[in-house]
Amino acid sequence: MAENAENQVVTADELDALEARLAEVETYLHLDEKRGRVTELERESAAPGFWDDAEAARRTMAELSSARSDVEAVDRAREELADARTALEFAAETDGEEAAEFGAEATELARGLTKTVDELELSSWFTGEFDHGDAIVTIKPGQGGLEAQDWTFMLFKMYMRYCARRGWKVTVNDCPAAEVIGIDRATFTVEGKDAFGMLRAEAGVHRLVRISPTDAKKRRQTTFAGVEVIPVLPDDIDIEIAPDDIRVDVYHASGPGGQGVNTTDSAVRVTHLPTGIVVTCQNERSQIQNKAACMAILKARLYELELQKREEALDEIRGPKTEIGFGNQIRSYVLYPYQMVKDLRTGVETGNVDDVLEEGNLDPFIIGYHRWATGNVE
Fold this sequence. Notes:
By secondary structure, this protein is an alpha+beta fold. The protein has helices spanning 12-29, 31-45, 54-93, 96-124, 146-166, 195-199, 287-313, 353-357, 363-374; strands spanning 135-141, 169-174, 186-191, 204-211, 220-231, 246-251, 267-272, 277-281, 329-334, 340-343, 349-350. Helix 2 (31-45) packs across helix 3.
């Protein structure tokens, strides 16, 4: 729906446009087939012995949850659309204060419907193999020394807030404190609908411009951090890792600020010797759990590395790796001498930097990226 002024009521044409968009989403989702699939999966989950194979049951329940979510979202959208049309009809049949109330109700319903359709359309753009699944995010400091470590911590907190806004579950795998300020790096797993599809918009170099908090002369400082986003691999994808190809080290765990996570050497570092990939995890309380988490992340990175090799052999579809520094950023966050967050790929920008960094409101940038990437630019 087009943005209306405060006193402007949604029109029947705008509701027609929303209905057309919703119909396109239903076609993409194959909604009738999905309804049948929900019924079938519900029948399977209620059968005796369903939980005898716990792993198969978990996969079935995950598929059921995803399918049911799509069906329920479209059904809610249809109800909102019908309610908005009814309210608009009442507004036309009455006058005075009563007409204004019905008009306001229709407009409010249309705004909610617009957000629902936006989300459904966004999901329909995710056509990658892993787009609807979970994600592993890693943030690393780039150029800027100590300031880059602080910037890494700022980004980490921003993503934690964004994931909370979306209702996603986050498991922090590794987030060691830096010696002076900020963190050395952060790796966390995000579980939720379309998590990888959404968050892959964030992969790249992020640039911060501000007055240095560590400089006595209060000079302006530019710092960088790199964000890597890879998918959590489904269980049916098996990556073979020879025991002789890895080295496992254990050490004392610590968190941001230097506090101990526990009093044992439970943190684990796994080094893949052929590639030099290093994965660390200190979130869990035991070495066994931390090693399992490391291996899951390592397998995902090796899979991503293999995809990169294939793509590079085909005219470098993804393109070369870039240095986490000047000229390679995807987004700039300027706190001084003015305030602005701007995505350099899409042109999406805002002057409300606190809304982005402190509140984690990244949807305008992430949705804007996917509109740009799929050619659905308004």
